[in-house]
Each structure stands twice: as C-alpha cells, then as structure tokens.
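Students often ask why we bother encoding 3D structure as a string. The short answer is that it lets us treat folding as translation between two languages. Here is a chain of 307 residues written in the first language.
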Amino acid sequence: MTASNIKIGTWKSPLSLSQTNWVKTQLEKKNPGLSVEVVVIKTRGDKIPDAPLLKIGSKSLFVKEIENALLQGDIDLAVHSMKDMPAEISKGLYIGAVPIRKIANDVFISKEKLHFSELKPGARIGTNGQARMAQLLFKRPDIKIVRLQGDLDARLRTLETEELDGIILAAADILRMNMGMRITEYLDETFILPAVGQGALCIETRNNDYKVLPFVAKLDERDTRSVIMGERAFSRRLGGGCQVPLAALGKIEENTFSITGIVADPDGKKIIKETMSGSKDLSETIGEKLGDILLCMGAKQILDNLK
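And here it is in the second language, the structure alphabet:
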C-alpha cells in the first residue's frame, strides 16, 4: 500500500458490493488523490451457499474471514453491515468509521400487496433473525415463519419459490439495492424493534494503521457512532450474537441518547422490554445499564435456557 492506494475487502453478494462501492466513492471524494481498489474475499459461506447459517456458524463467519485478510495485510480496510458484526471486535482491529445511518426499521414485502395487519390466519412469512421472529410470533402466534437463507436476491425469490404470503427484511438493504418499489409497508419500531446496528455500516481497520485511519475517519458521523456503540454495549452485556433473541434501537435527540432494548423467548411467548436515556456522551454506559436492567427483569433466565 502507498499513501494514495488502499484496498477494501468485502464478500461477493450484490448488497455487500453495493455498500463497498459506496464507501469507495466516498473515500475518493473526501480524499482527493486517493485510489481505492475493491477486493472480493471468498469465504466458506460462499462455498456452501445453500447450507443454513445455523450449520455453518452464523453470519459472523463471513465477517471473520474478511477480518483475517485484514489482519494479514491482504486488504487495508473492510466494509460490513453493522448488524452482522460480533459483539466483540477481534483483537488488533478497530471500527474506524460509522457513516450516517439512514434507516434502521424493517419492511414488509407482500405477495398480494397486503399490509401485515391484513394477513389471514396461518399466513406464511419468510424472515430471519431470532429477535425478529420472536417479535412476530408475539404479535401473531398464528403465522407460520419460514427461515430465509442466502443473499438479498435469494431471499426475495423465496416469495415465489416457497409460496410465501410475505417476507420481512431490513429496509436499508432494500433501499441500498434501489428496490424501494418492492416495499409494501415500513414496520414501526414499536411493532418490530430492529437488530442491533441495523441500517448502519461498519468500516473496519487495523487499530494501529495510522496511514489508513485518517482517510477513513472522514466518513465517521459522530452521533451515529455514539448510537451504534450504545446499542453494541447493550448487546455485549447480554452476550449478543446472531442466535440470541435480542434487539435494540438507540436515538439522539437534543443531545440526549435514548435506547430501547428487548430480550425475547424464541417462541415469542415472552418479551422483556425497557428504555433508558441520558447524555449522548455516555451511550455505552447507558447501553450496558439497560442490559443489566433486562437481566434483572428476567432476561437472564431466557438466556440461560438458550444455553
């Protein structure tokens, strides 16, 4: 790497490439003279695309293999969806920037253009994410949930191939792929609280790479970072991961950070939910305290049962 040439690593899905190319464009725009090369990293998940995530490890396996390339110096930074990031960042790595988060909510895409409230009893809904599925069952225990796999295009195709009545996905993923016309309904966070970090990007670097960090730092948005770090602190306190049914959404309004978090029974029979707020400069402390409160409210028993 020279001062004017850096490599970004990502995996091959259209969504990942779209996100990475956006970061490439922004880096070159904010750092005149900088040349950015996109490097596609082949992961174990790519080699067995039809295997359920539960069998091959979880979304974090895609992150881990790209992180290995970063640690080995094959690439200089990596772009991830923040919701896919493990609660603990790997040793030697750093979240170099968190660009502004545009939307965190989920969306419903209906085969017949019906809103979720209009679905008939026993409707078949495709989605993924333990917390999302638990919240759906809490609201509508009559529905049949079909777990989705694969990249965004594959998930959208299941609307036809699996004879589903609808699918629920992250709004940001659909919008980044310019598929907003497919959206039937935006789902409010009071209906489904989104996954930790959903809608935000993570630009990951080596923590001591002082040549790359100044370039990347120009994409960091202070309030978005504060919110995301608060949500991640909540998740970390509860041992969060792809298979843990927890969700959280933070916001900053008038310098006050507020965060709502849940822990749910996987079957949706019980959801523990609470909100905390305080100074935006203390978002991580507030997120951790919210995790402690939920543990005292009964989340510990739910999490222990999962083990």
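Translate back mentally: The first helix runs from residue 14 to 30. Keep this in mind for the problem set.
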